[in-house]
Amino acid sequence: MGAYWALVELKDGQPRRGSLEALRLAARLAEQAGATVSAVTIAPAVSPQAAATLAGYGAKSIERLSGDGLDPYTPTAYTAALAAYTKGAGAPDALFACTTSRVRDFGPRFAARAGFVYCPDVIEVAHKDGAMMARRPLYAGKVLATARFAAGRPPFIGTRPNNFPPGDPTAGAAAPVNEHTVTIPEGDRRMEVLEFQPAGGDRPELQEARIVVSGGRGMKGPENWHLLEALADSLGAALGASRAVCDAGWRPHREQVGQTGKTVTPELYIAVAISGAIQHRVGMSSSKWIVAVNRDKDADIFKISDFGLVGDVFEILPLLTAEIRKAKGSG
Amino acid sequence: MRLLALIKQVPDTFARLALTSDAQGIETKDLGWVISPYDEFAIEAALRLREAHTGEVIVASLGPARVVDSLRQALAMGADAAFHFTDAAFEGADAAATALVFSKWLAGQQFDLILCGRQAVDDDCQLVHAAVAERLGWPHVHVVRQLEVDPATKTMTAHRDVEGGVEVVRCPLPAVITCQWNMNQPRLPSLQGIMKAKSKPITPVSAADAGVTADDVAGACDLRYGDFAYPAQKRQNKIIAGEPAAVVKELVRLLREEAKVL
Question: What is the CATH number of the domain that holds A23?
Answer without folding.
Answer: 3.40.50.620
